Automatic annotation (TrEMBL):
<dbReference type="GO" id="GO:0000175">
    <property type="term" value="F:3'-5'-RNA exonuclease activity"/>
</dbReference>
<protein>
    <submittedName>
        <fullName>Sporulation inhibitor KapD</fullName>
    </submittedName>
</protein>
<dbReference type="GO" id="GO:0003676">
    <property type="term" value="F:nucleic acid binding"/>
</dbReference>
<dbReference type="InterPro" id="IPR047201">
    <property type="entry name" value="ERI-1_3'hExo-like"/>
</dbReference>
<keyword id="KW-0378">Hydrolase</keyword>
<dbReference type="InterPro" id="IPR036397">
    <property type="entry name" value="RNaseH_sf"/>
</dbReference>
<dbReference type="Pfam" id="PF00929">
    <property type="entry name" value="RNase_T"/>
</dbReference>
<dbReference type="InterPro" id="IPR051274">
    <property type="entry name" value="3-5_Exoribonuclease"/>
</dbReference>
<keyword id="KW-0269">Exonuclease</keyword>
<feature type="domain" description="Exonuclease">
    <location>
        <begin position="5"/>
        <end position="182"/>
    </location>
</feature>
<dbReference type="InterPro" id="IPR012337">
    <property type="entry name" value="RNaseH-like_sf"/>
</dbReference>
<keyword id="KW-0540">Nuclease</keyword>
<dbReference type="InterPro" id="IPR013520">
    <property type="entry name" value="Ribonucl_H"/>
</dbReference>
Length: 208
């Protein structure tokens, strides 16, 4: 990493049932996980539930899939508080936001538009799943936990918990960045590095 700040970010969203789709449902953020990294060290983490605005009642499908209760989000921070927090992180220093997939940023932008709140990030945004796909030449994008398993590792904590997924994204980021170093063309070797002169001398002495 190059000395700037990285924000590894993950959101969990509301999920529709059939009736919700019929009345213009759109996903809202209900959980946030952030891992703040600078100077190749984790500087801070943050986790919180977030209260949805347009569709405050979670569907049974959402509660089951995310293993979440209505009381959890009811006691969470507001969306405006979330955006304020993200803006504060962004202002600390030059920040790059890293997510697994593009859904997180899409939902955040849409939610900011609907709430008429300024988008909090000003720096680079990186979709690590797309980088992973291109790096390994995969046909399709790989799920977060499948990707970490392909490295022979395990995800942190529990899948679909925002902070655990943010931490897992950071872990994969480190692995991919390390692998990229192997693709950097090394400096030309000298003749001394290409030839083992000790073996050559041994062979000459044997002949003599």
């Amino acid at each position: 990493m190059d000395g700037q700040q990285y924000l590894f970010l993950d959101f969990e969203f509301t999920m529709p049932d059939r009736s919700a789709r019929n009345r213009g449902f759109y996903p809202e953020i209900i959980e946030v996980g952030i891992v703040v990294v600078a100077d190749e060290k984790v500087q801070a983490t943050f986790s919180s539930y977030v209260k949805p605005v347009k569709f405050p009642q979670l569907t049974d499908r959402c509660k089951t899939f995310l293993n979440i209760e209505q009381e959890d989000v009811d006691q969470g921070i507001s969306f405006s508080e979330l955006v304020t927090l993200l803006r504060q992180y962004d202002k600390q220093m030059n920040s790059t936001v890293v997510t697994w997939g593009n859904m997180d940023m899409k939902v955040l932008r849409k939610s900011c538009e609907l709430a008429k709140i300024a988008y909090p990030f000003t720096g680079e945004e990186r979709d690590l799943s797309l980088e992973y796909k291109r790096f390994f030449g995969d046909r399709n994008q790989t799920g977060l936990w499948k990707a970490v398993e392909e490295y022979g590792k395990k995800g942190t904590g529990r899948h679909h918990r925002a902070l655990d997924d943010a931490q897992t994204t950071y872990n994969i980021f480190k692995l991919v960045e390390k692998d990229k170093q192997y693709l950097i063309k090394p400096a030309p070797t000298t003749i001394g590095e290409r030839v083992d002169f000790s073996k050559l001398l041994n062979r000459i002495n044997t002949v003599n």
